[in-house]
Amino acid sequence: MRTDEHISDGSIARTGGGRRALAPRRLLRGALPAVLLLVAACTGDGGGGVAAAAGQPGVAGVGDPLFPRLGNGGYDVRHYGLTLDYVPEGNRLHGIAVVKSRAKQDLNAFNLDFKGLKVRTALVDGKSARVSRKGDELTVTPRSTIGKGREFETKIVYDGKPQRVVDADNGKEGWVETDDGSVSLGEPMGSMTWFPGNHHPSDKATYDINVTVPKGFTAVANGELKRRTVAEDGRTTFAWRTAEPMASYLASVAVGDFTVSETKTKDGLPVYVAVDPDEAERSKGVEKLIPKVVEWGSGLFGPYPFSGTGAVVDNNPDVDYALETQGKPYFPHAPDDLLVVHELVHQWFGNSVSPRTWRDMWLNESFPTYAEWMWEEKTGGRTVAKIFQDFYDGTDKLSEDIWDFPPGNPPADDVSGDPVYGRGAMVLHKVREAVGDKTFFDIVRTWTKQHRHGNAETRQFIELCEKKSGKDLGKLFEAWLYGKAKPPRGRAA
Protein backbone atom coordinates (compact mmCIF):
# COMPACT_ATOMS: atom_id res chain seq x y z
CA MET A 1 0.00 0.00 0.00
CA ARG A 2 1.18 3.52 -0.76
CA THR A 3 -0.33 6.94 -0.06
CA ASP A 4 -0.14 10.01 -2.24
CA GLU A 5 1.49 12.90 -0.42
CA HIS A 6 -0.51 15.34 -2.48
CA ILE A 7 -2.75 15.15 -5.51
CA SER A 8 -3.13 17.87 -8.08
CA ASP A 9 -5.84 17.99 -10.73
CA GLY A 10 -6.72 14.35 -10.08
CA SER A 11 -3.30 12.97 -10.98
CA ILE A 12 -0.51 11.49 -8.89
CA ALA A 13 1.92 14.23 -7.92
CA ARG A 14 5.57 13.80 -8.84
CA THR A 15 8.85 15.23 -7.68
CA GLY A 16 12.13 15.78 -9.44
CA GLY A 17 13.74 12.84 -11.17
CA GLY A 18 10.39 11.18 -11.85
CA ARG A 19 9.98 10.07 -8.24
CA ARG A 20 6.51 10.17 -6.77
CA ALA A 21 6.03 12.32 -3.69
CA LEU A 22 4.78 9.58 -1.37
CA ALA A 23 4.32 9.05 2.30
CA PRO A 24 2.88 5.86 3.81
CA ARG A 25 -0.72 5.97 4.86
CA ARG A 26 -1.06 6.49 8.61
CA LEU A 27 -3.66 3.88 9.49
CA LEU A 28 -5.80 4.12 12.59
CA ARG A 29 -3.86 1.97 15.02
CA GLY A 30 -4.00 3.28 18.52
CA ALA A 31 -7.69 4.02 18.07
CA LEU A 32 -8.54 0.61 16.64
CA PRO A 33 -9.32 -1.13 19.91
CA ALA A 34 -11.71 1.67 20.82
CA VAL A 35 -13.48 1.26 17.49
CA LEU A 36 -13.71 -2.46 17.95
CA LEU A 37 -15.10 -2.09 21.46
CA LEU A 38 -17.93 0.29 20.57
CA VAL A 39 -21.11 -1.07 22.06
CA ALA A 40 -24.05 -1.52 19.71
CA ALA A 41 -27.55 -2.69 20.48
CA CYS A 42 -27.93 -6.43 20.87
CA THR A 43 -30.16 -8.20 18.39
CA GLY A 44 -31.97 -11.49 18.50
CA ASP A 45 -32.22 -11.89 14.75
CA GLY A 46 -33.09 -15.24 13.28
CA GLY A 47 -32.83 -17.65 16.15
CA GLY A 48 -35.01 -17.11 19.16
CA GLY A 49 -35.30 -19.97 21.61
CA VAL A 50 -31.97 -21.67 20.82
CA ALA A 51 -30.90 -23.72 23.79
CA ALA A 52 -27.45 -23.33 25.34
CA ALA A 53 -25.02 -26.00 24.21
CA ALA A 54 -22.10 -27.78 25.84
CA GLY A 55 -18.54 -26.86 24.93
CA GLN A 56 -16.80 -23.49 24.99
CA PRO A 57 -17.26 -20.32 22.94
CA GLY A 58 -14.50 -19.26 20.59
CA VAL A 59 -12.58 -16.26 21.85
CA ALA A 60 -13.31 -12.80 20.46
CA GLY A 61 -9.89 -11.92 19.05
CA VAL A 62 -6.87 -13.96 17.99
CA GLY A 63 -4.46 -12.21 20.34
CA ASP A 64 -2.55 -10.22 17.73
CA PRO A 65 0.35 -8.49 19.56
CA LEU A 66 -0.73 -5.09 18.23
CA PHE A 67 -4.50 -5.55 17.93
CA PRO A 68 -5.58 -8.44 20.16
CA ARG A 69 -9.29 -7.85 19.51
CA LEU A 70 -9.07 -8.41 15.74
CA GLY A 71 -10.12 -11.78 14.34
CA ASN A 72 -11.73 -14.62 16.25
CA GLY A 73 -10.68 -17.90 17.80
CA GLY A 74 -12.10 -21.41 17.81
CA TYR A 75 -12.45 -21.99 14.07
CA ASP A 76 -10.65 -21.75 10.76
CA VAL A 77 -12.49 -20.37 7.73
CA ARG A 78 -12.03 -22.40 4.56
CA HIS A 79 -14.28 -20.54 2.12
CA TYR A 80 -16.46 -17.44 1.83
CA GLY A 81 -19.41 -17.46 -0.55
CA LEU A 82 -20.65 -13.88 -0.82
CA THR A 83 -23.78 -13.01 -2.79
CA LEU A 84 -24.26 -9.26 -2.97
CA ASP A 85 -26.99 -7.11 -4.50
CA TYR A 86 -25.93 -3.48 -4.58
CA VAL A 87 -27.78 -0.33 -5.64
CA PRO A 88 -25.42 2.66 -5.82
CA GLU A 89 -28.27 5.16 -5.64
CA GLY A 90 -28.97 5.28 -1.94
CA ASN A 91 -25.98 3.01 -1.18
CA ARG A 92 -28.10 -0.07 -0.41
CA LEU A 93 -26.53 -3.49 0.00
CA HIS A 94 -28.25 -6.83 0.44
CA GLY A 95 -25.88 -9.66 1.24
CA ILE A 96 -25.79 -13.38 1.89
CA ALA A 97 -22.57 -14.71 3.38
CA VAL A 98 -22.00 -18.47 3.47
CA VAL A 99 -18.94 -19.12 5.59
CA LYS A 100 -17.50 -22.64 5.54
CA SER A 101 -15.23 -23.35 8.49
CA ARG A 102 -13.57 -26.06 10.55
CA ALA A 103 -13.90 -26.08 14.33
CA LYS A 104 -10.58 -25.96 16.20
CA GLN A 105 -12.30 -26.82 19.48
CA ASP A 106 -15.69 -27.92 20.75
CA LEU A 107 -17.73 -24.80 19.99
CA ASN A 108 -20.99 -23.82 21.61
CA ALA A 109 -20.68 -20.28 20.19
CA PHE A 110 -18.33 -18.30 17.97
CA ASN A 111 -17.81 -14.76 16.80
CA LEU A 112 -17.74 -13.05 13.41
CA ASP A 113 -16.35 -9.55 12.90
CA PHE A 114 -19.18 -7.49 11.43
CA LYS A 115 -19.90 -3.77 11.54
CA GLY A 116 -23.06 -1.79 10.96
CA LEU A 117 -25.30 -3.84 8.68
CA LYS A 118 -28.51 -5.42 9.94
CA VAL A 119 -28.59 -9.20 10.38
CA ARG A 120 -31.86 -10.70 9.13
CA THR A 121 -31.20 -14.43 9.38
CA ALA A 122 -28.52 -16.65 10.86
CA LEU A 123 -28.19 -20.38 10.17
CA VAL A 124 -25.59 -22.94 11.19
CA ASP A 125 -25.70 -26.08 9.07
CA GLY A 126 -29.18 -25.09 7.89
CA LYS A 127 -30.65 -24.64 11.36
CA SER A 128 -31.56 -21.29 12.87
CA ALA A 129 -29.00 -19.89 15.30
CA ARG A 130 -29.18 -17.14 17.89
CA VAL A 131 -27.08 -14.03 17.30
CA SER A 132 -26.18 -11.10 19.50
CA ARG A 133 -24.02 -8.05 18.87
CA LYS A 134 -21.62 -6.00 20.92
CA GLY A 135 -19.74 -3.39 18.98
CA ASP A 136 -18.21 -5.06 15.94
CA GLU A 137 -18.57 -8.59 17.34
CA LEU A 138 -21.42 -10.77 16.07
CA THR A 139 -21.80 -13.79 18.36
CA VAL A 140 -23.44 -16.83 16.79
CA THR A 141 -24.86 -19.56 19.05
CA PRO A 142 -25.79 -22.77 17.19
CA ARG A 143 -28.47 -25.19 18.35
CA SER A 144 -25.91 -27.78 19.38
CA THR A 145 -22.21 -28.00 20.00
CA ILE A 146 -19.95 -28.12 16.97
CA GLY A 147 -17.36 -30.80 17.66
CA LYS A 148 -13.64 -30.16 17.29
CA GLY A 149 -12.44 -30.91 13.77
CA ARG A 150 -15.91 -30.79 12.27
CA GLU A 151 -16.66 -28.81 9.11
CA PHE A 152 -19.64 -26.50 9.48
CA GLU A 153 -21.43 -23.84 7.45
CA THR A 154 -22.69 -20.49 8.70
CA LYS A 155 -25.16 -18.47 6.64
CA ILE A 156 -25.80 -14.84 7.46
CA VAL A 157 -28.40 -12.79 5.56
CA TYR A 158 -28.00 -9.05 6.04
CA ASP A 159 -28.73 -5.65 4.52
CA GLY A 160 -28.47 -1.91 4.99
CA LYS A 161 -26.13 0.93 4.11
CA PRO A 162 -22.51 -0.22 4.36
CA GLN A 163 -20.23 2.19 6.15
CA ARG A 164 -16.84 3.64 5.57
CA VAL A 165 -14.35 3.84 8.41
CA VAL A 166 -12.41 7.08 8.84
CA ASP A 167 -8.95 6.66 10.32
CA ALA A 168 -7.13 9.08 12.61
CA ASP A 169 -5.32 10.57 9.60
CA ASN A 170 -8.65 11.04 7.79
CA GLY A 171 -7.87 8.08 5.55
CA LYS A 172 -10.95 6.15 4.50
CA GLU A 173 -11.52 2.41 4.31
CA GLY A 174 -14.45 0.05 4.51
CA TRP A 175 -17.21 0.65 1.97
CA VAL A 176 -16.37 3.97 0.31
CA GLU A 177 -18.86 5.61 -2.06
CA THR A 178 -17.53 7.16 -5.27
CA ASP A 179 -19.10 9.59 -7.74
CA ASP A 180 -20.54 6.69 -9.76
CA GLY A 181 -20.46 3.69 -7.43
CA SER A 182 -18.35 2.42 -4.56
CA VAL A 183 -15.25 0.48 -3.55
CA SER A 184 -14.52 -1.68 -0.54
CA LEU A 185 -11.04 -1.38 0.98
CA GLY A 186 -10.06 -3.53 3.91
CA GLU A 187 -6.68 -2.80 5.48
CA PRO A 188 -6.75 -3.46 8.37
CA MET A 189 -10.39 -3.66 9.46
CA GLY A 190 -12.55 -2.32 6.62
CA SER A 191 -13.76 -5.69 5.31
CA MET A 192 -16.03 -6.15 8.32
CA THR A 193 -18.19 -3.30 6.97
CA TRP A 194 -19.50 -5.39 4.07
CA PHE A 195 -19.33 -9.05 5.06
CA PRO A 196 -19.12 -11.01 8.33
CA GLY A 197 -15.97 -13.06 8.83
CA ASN A 198 -12.80 -13.79 10.69
CA HIS A 199 -11.01 -10.58 9.79
CA HIS A 200 -7.39 -11.26 10.70
CA PRO A 201 -4.70 -12.03 8.08
CA SER A 202 -3.77 -15.29 9.80
CA ASP A 203 -7.06 -16.89 8.68
CA LYS A 204 -6.96 -17.01 4.88
CA ALA A 205 -9.67 -18.58 2.73
CA THR A 206 -10.89 -18.96 -0.83
CA TYR A 207 -13.73 -16.79 -2.11
CA ASP A 208 -16.69 -16.71 -4.46
CA ILE A 209 -18.06 -13.17 -4.78
CA ASN A 210 -21.21 -12.70 -6.86
CA VAL A 211 -22.29 -9.07 -7.26
CA THR A 212 -25.51 -7.90 -8.90
CA VAL A 213 -25.62 -4.25 -9.97
CA PRO A 214 -28.00 -2.06 -12.00
CA LYS A 215 -27.80 -1.72 -15.76
CA GLY A 216 -24.73 0.19 -16.93
CA PHE A 217 -22.56 -0.67 -13.92
CA THR A 218 -19.60 -3.04 -13.72
CA ALA A 219 -18.66 -4.91 -10.53
CA VAL A 220 -15.02 -5.94 -10.21
CA ALA A 221 -13.81 -8.27 -7.46
CA ASN A 222 -10.83 -10.48 -6.75
CA GLY A 223 -9.94 -13.53 -8.80
CA GLU A 224 -11.27 -14.59 -12.17
CA LEU A 225 -14.57 -13.60 -13.76
CA LYS A 226 -16.45 -16.88 -14.18
CA ARG A 227 -19.80 -15.58 -15.41
CA ARG A 228 -21.52 -12.38 -16.43
CA THR A 229 -25.30 -12.74 -16.47
CA VAL A 230 -27.71 -10.04 -17.66
CA ALA A 231 -31.34 -10.12 -16.52
CA GLU A 232 -34.28 -8.86 -18.57
CA ASP A 233 -34.28 -5.55 -16.69
CA GLY A 234 -30.60 -5.05 -17.47
CA ARG A 235 -29.34 -5.81 -13.99
CA THR A 236 -26.07 -7.69 -14.29
CA THR A 237 -24.49 -10.29 -12.03
CA PHE A 238 -20.70 -10.64 -12.05
CA ALA A 239 -19.46 -13.93 -10.60
CA TRP A 240 -15.85 -13.79 -9.37
CA ARG A 241 -13.82 -16.68 -7.96
CA THR A 242 -10.59 -16.56 -5.96
CA ALA A 243 -9.20 -20.09 -5.89
CA GLU A 244 -6.06 -19.19 -3.96
CA PRO A 245 -6.27 -18.39 -0.23
CA MET A 246 -6.73 -14.71 0.54
CA ALA A 247 -6.60 -12.63 3.72
CA SER A 248 -9.89 -10.80 4.18
CA TYR A 249 -8.31 -7.34 4.21
CA LEU A 250 -7.34 -7.95 0.56
CA ALA A 251 -10.91 -8.75 -0.53
CA SER A 252 -12.51 -5.99 -2.56
CA VAL A 253 -15.48 -5.06 -4.71
CA ALA A 254 -15.39 -1.99 -6.96
CA VAL A 255 -18.61 -0.85 -8.62
CA GLY A 256 -18.68 1.87 -11.24
CA ASP A 257 -18.77 2.93 -14.85
CA PHE A 258 -15.57 1.19 -15.91
CA THR A 259 -14.00 0.57 -19.29
CA VAL A 260 -12.67 -2.98 -19.16
CA SER A 261 -9.69 -4.45 -20.99
CA GLU A 262 -9.05 -8.21 -20.96
CA THR A 263 -5.71 -9.39 -22.35
CA LYS A 264 -3.06 -11.97 -21.50
CA THR A 265 0.63 -11.93 -20.77
CA LYS A 266 2.91 -13.77 -23.17
CA ASP A 267 2.74 -16.72 -20.75
CA GLY A 268 -1.06 -16.77 -20.93
CA LEU A 269 -1.82 -15.14 -17.59
CA PRO A 270 -5.15 -13.24 -17.77
CA VAL A 271 -4.86 -9.46 -17.31
CA TYR A 272 -8.09 -7.66 -16.33
CA VAL A 273 -7.89 -3.87 -16.15
CA ALA A 274 -10.91 -1.72 -15.26
CA VAL A 275 -10.52 2.04 -15.71
CA ASP A 276 -12.83 4.92 -14.92
CA PRO A 277 -13.32 6.86 -18.17
CA ASP A 278 -12.19 10.07 -16.44
CA GLU A 279 -8.78 8.45 -15.84
CA ALA A 280 -8.44 6.75 -19.24
CA GLU A 281 -6.08 9.28 -20.82
CA ARG A 282 -3.70 9.29 -17.85
CA SER A 283 -3.84 5.48 -17.52
CA LYS A 284 -2.84 4.54 -21.05
CA GLY A 285 0.42 2.89 -19.98
CA VAL A 286 -0.98 0.73 -17.17
CA GLU A 287 -2.25 -2.12 -19.34
CA LYS A 288 1.14 -2.56 -21.04
CA LEU A 289 3.15 -2.04 -17.85
CA ILE A 290 1.44 -4.78 -15.82
CA PRO A 291 2.73 -7.74 -17.92
CA LYS A 292 6.24 -6.25 -17.88
CA VAL A 293 6.25 -5.96 -14.09
CA VAL A 294 4.81 -9.46 -13.65
CA GLU A 295 7.48 -10.94 -15.93
CA TRP A 296 10.26 -8.99 -14.20
CA GLY A 297 8.98 -9.91 -10.75
CA SER A 298 8.66 -13.58 -11.65
CA GLY A 299 12.32 -13.64 -12.59
CA LEU A 300 13.38 -12.12 -9.28
CA PHE A 301 10.86 -13.46 -6.78
CA GLY A 302 9.64 -16.73 -8.26
CA PRO A 303 6.48 -17.65 -10.20
CA TYR A 304 3.60 -15.20 -10.05
CA PRO A 305 1.37 -16.61 -7.29
CA PHE A 306 -2.14 -16.10 -8.69
CA SER A 307 -4.24 -17.24 -11.63
CA GLY A 308 -4.74 -13.72 -12.92
CA THR A 309 -3.55 -10.14 -12.58
CA GLY A 310 -4.74 -6.66 -13.43
CA ALA A 311 -5.80 -3.42 -11.81
CA VAL A 312 -8.70 -1.12 -11.02
CA VAL A 313 -8.05 2.55 -11.80
CA ASP A 314 -10.82 4.64 -10.31
CA ASN A 315 -11.61 8.35 -10.06
CA ASN A 316 -11.88 8.58 -6.30
CA PRO A 317 -10.75 11.83 -4.65
CA ASP A 318 -11.89 10.61 -1.23
CA VAL A 319 -9.15 7.96 -1.08
CA ASP A 320 -5.51 9.03 -1.05
CA TYR A 321 -3.78 5.65 -1.19
CA ALA A 322 -3.41 2.65 -3.46
CA LEU A 323 -4.07 -0.81 -2.04
CA GLU A 324 -2.74 -4.21 -3.08
CA THR A 325 -6.18 -5.85 -3.28
CA GLN A 326 -5.41 -9.42 -4.29
CA GLY A 327 -4.94 -9.97 -8.02
CA LYS A 328 -6.08 -6.48 -9.02
CA PRO A 329 -4.52 -3.58 -7.09
CA TYR A 330 -6.79 -0.61 -6.55
CA PHE A 331 -5.63 2.85 -7.61
CA PRO A 332 -7.84 5.86 -6.74
CA HIS A 333 -6.30 7.78 -9.67
CA ALA A 334 -4.02 7.08 -12.59
CA PRO A 335 -0.79 5.70 -11.06
CA ASP A 336 2.79 6.30 -12.05
CA ASP A 337 5.10 3.39 -12.87
CA LEU A 338 6.63 3.03 -9.40
CA LEU A 339 3.23 2.83 -7.76
CA VAL A 340 2.21 0.05 -10.16
CA VAL A 341 5.46 -1.79 -9.37
CA HIS A 342 4.86 -1.43 -5.64
CA GLU A 343 1.32 -2.79 -5.63
CA LEU A 344 2.05 -5.64 -8.05
CA VAL A 345 5.07 -6.82 -6.04
CA HIS A 346 2.71 -6.99 -3.07
CA GLN A 347 1.12 -9.96 -4.84
CA TRP A 348 4.17 -11.97 -3.76
CA PHE A 349 4.81 -10.16 -0.48
CA GLY A 350 1.75 -9.57 1.67
CA ASN A 351 -0.81 -11.29 -0.56
CA SER A 352 0.69 -14.73 -1.23
CA VAL A 353 3.02 -14.64 1.78
CA SER A 354 0.82 -12.87 4.33
CA PRO A 355 1.85 -11.64 7.78
CA ARG A 356 1.17 -13.94 10.69
CA THR A 357 0.53 -10.88 12.84
CA TRP A 358 0.35 -7.15 12.13
CA ARG A 359 3.74 -6.78 13.84
CA ASP A 360 5.21 -8.46 10.73
CA MET A 361 3.98 -5.57 8.57
CA TRP A 362 7.53 -4.71 7.46
CA LEU A 363 7.62 -8.00 5.51
CA ASN A 364 4.64 -6.70 3.53
CA GLU A 365 6.04 -3.28 2.70
CA SER A 366 9.82 -3.63 2.57
CA PHE A 367 9.93 -5.87 -0.51
CA PRO A 368 7.60 -3.71 -2.66
CA THR A 369 9.55 -0.62 -1.61
CA TYR A 370 12.86 -2.31 -2.43
CA ALA A 371 11.35 -3.38 -5.75
CA GLU A 372 10.68 0.31 -6.49
CA TRP A 373 14.39 0.94 -5.93
CA MET A 374 15.35 -1.90 -8.26
CA TRP A 375 12.89 -0.75 -10.93
CA GLU A 376 14.31 2.77 -10.80
CA GLU A 377 17.80 1.35 -11.34
CA LYS A 378 16.53 -0.93 -14.13
CA THR A 379 14.93 1.98 -15.98
CA GLY A 380 17.97 4.24 -15.90
CA GLY A 381 17.47 6.14 -12.66
CA ARG A 382 19.51 6.02 -9.47
CA THR A 383 21.18 2.79 -8.51
CA VAL A 384 19.83 0.85 -5.54
CA ALA A 385 23.02 1.69 -3.64
CA LYS A 386 22.50 5.41 -4.33
CA ILE A 387 18.87 5.27 -3.18
CA PHE A 388 19.96 3.51 0.00
CA GLN A 389 22.53 6.25 0.61
CA ASP A 390 19.94 8.95 -0.04
CA PHE A 391 17.65 7.34 2.53
CA TYR A 392 20.50 7.03 5.00
CA ASP A 393 21.54 10.66 4.51
CA GLY A 394 17.96 11.90 4.61
CA THR A 395 18.09 13.47 1.16
CA ASP A 396 15.33 11.32 -0.36
CA LYS A 397 11.90 12.91 0.10
CA LEU A 398 10.55 9.64 1.52
CA SER A 399 13.23 9.31 4.19
CA GLU A 400 12.15 12.05 6.58
CA ASP A 401 10.69 9.88 9.36
CA ILE A 402 12.34 6.50 8.80
CA TRP A 403 14.19 6.57 12.13
CA ASP A 404 11.08 7.19 14.23
CA PHE A 405 10.89 3.55 15.36
CA PRO A 406 12.41 0.18 14.40
CA PRO A 407 10.46 -1.44 11.55
CA GLY A 408 10.51 -4.84 13.25
CA ASN A 409 8.69 -3.47 16.28
CA PRO A 410 6.17 -0.87 15.08
CA PRO A 411 3.77 0.84 17.48
CA ALA A 412 0.10 0.04 17.16
CA ASP A 413 -0.75 3.63 16.20
CA ASP A 414 1.79 3.79 13.35
CA VAL A 415 2.19 0.27 12.02
CA SER A 416 2.18 1.61 8.45
CA GLY A 417 4.62 4.41 9.19
CA ASP A 418 7.67 5.43 7.18
CA PRO A 419 10.14 3.06 8.91
CA VAL A 420 8.12 0.03 7.80
CA TYR A 421 8.60 1.06 4.16
CA GLY A 422 11.90 2.90 3.81
CA ARG A 423 13.94 1.47 6.66
CA GLY A 424 12.42 -1.93 5.92
CA ALA A 425 13.84 -1.72 2.40
CA MET A 426 17.18 -0.68 3.91
CA VAL A 427 17.17 -3.89 5.98
CA LEU A 428 16.83 -5.92 2.79
CA HIS A 429 19.68 -4.01 1.15
CA LYS A 430 21.94 -4.65 4.15
CA VAL A 431 21.14 -8.36 3.93
CA ARG A 432 21.93 -8.28 0.21
CA GLU A 433 25.27 -6.57 0.92
CA ALA A 434 26.09 -9.13 3.60
CA VAL A 435 25.26 -12.31 1.67
CA GLY A 436 25.78 -11.30 -1.97
CA ASP A 437 23.33 -11.13 -4.87
CA LYS A 438 23.19 -14.85 -5.64
CA THR A 439 22.36 -15.86 -2.08
CA PHE A 440 20.02 -12.91 -1.53
CA PHE A 441 17.76 -13.73 -4.45
CA ASP A 442 17.92 -17.42 -3.55
CA ILE A 443 16.61 -16.41 -0.12
CA VAL A 444 13.83 -14.36 -1.67
CA ARG A 445 12.68 -17.10 -4.06
CA THR A 446 12.85 -19.71 -1.30
CA TRP A 447 10.77 -17.45 0.95
CA THR A 448 7.98 -17.04 -1.60
CA LYS A 449 8.04 -20.77 -2.39
CA GLN A 450 8.04 -22.05 1.20
CA HIS A 451 5.20 -19.78 2.33
CA ARG A 452 3.23 -19.54 -0.90
CA HIS A 453 -0.43 -18.84 -0.08
CA GLY A 454 0.36 -19.00 3.64
CA ASN A 455 1.47 -16.87 6.56
CA ALA A 456 4.94 -16.16 7.86
CA GLU A 457 6.71 -14.09 10.49
CA THR A 458 9.98 -12.24 10.94
CA ARG A 459 11.67 -14.98 12.95
CA GLN A 460 11.28 -17.38 10.01
CA PHE A 461 12.77 -14.85 7.59
CA ILE A 462 15.82 -14.30 9.77
CA GLU A 463 16.32 -18.06 10.15
CA LEU A 464 16.12 -18.53 6.38
CA CYS A 465 18.65 -15.76 5.75
CA GLU A 466 21.12 -17.34 8.15
CA LYS A 467 20.56 -20.85 6.86
CA LYS A 468 21.03 -19.91 3.20
CA SER A 469 24.05 -17.69 3.82
CA GLY A 470 25.72 -19.75 6.52
CA LYS A 471 26.27 -16.51 8.42
CA ASP A 472 25.28 -15.21 11.81
CA LEU A 473 23.23 -12.15 10.87
CA GLY A 474 22.06 -11.38 14.39
CA LYS A 475 23.95 -8.09 14.69
CA LEU A 476 22.68 -6.92 11.31
CA PHE A 477 19.03 -7.47 12.18
CA GLU A 478 19.53 -6.16 15.70
CA ALA A 479 20.90 -2.88 14.33
CA TRP A 480 18.80 -2.29 11.22
CA LEU A 481 15.49 -4.04 11.99
CA TYR A 482 15.19 -3.72 15.76
CA GLY A 483 17.59 -0.97 16.75
CA LYS A 484 16.12 2.32 17.94
CA ALA A 485 19.14 4.40 16.94
CA LYS A 486 20.44 5.07 13.44
CA PRO A 487 23.15 2.44 12.82
CA PRO A 488 26.61 3.35 11.54
CA ARG A 489 26.61 3.17 7.74
CA GLY A 490 29.24 0.42 7.51
CA ARG A 491 27.74 -1.84 10.12
CA ALA A 492 26.83 -5.28 8.79
CA ALA A 493 26.83 -8.87 9.98
Automatic annotation (TrEMBL):
Provide the reaction this enzyme catalyses.
Release of an N-terminal amino acid, Xaa-|-Yaa- from a peptide, amide or arylamide. Xaa is preferably Ala, but may be most amino acids including Pro (slow action). When a terminal hydrophobic residue is followed by a prolyl residue, the two may be released as an intact Xaa-Pro dipeptide
InterPro entries named among the record's database cross-references = Aminopeptidase_N-like_N, Aminopeptidase_N-like_N_sf, Peptidase_M1, Peptidase_M1_aminopeptidases, Peptidase_M1_dom, Peptidase_M4/M1_CTD_sf
Q: Does the keyword Zinc apply?
A: yes
Q: Which GO terms describe its molecular function?
A: alanyl aminopeptidase activity; metallopeptidase activity; zinc ion binding
Question: Can you give the residue ranges of the Aminopeptidase N-like N-terminal domain?
Answer: 79-250
Which protein family is named in the record?
Answer: Belongs to the peptidase M1 family.
* Full protein name: Aminopeptidase N
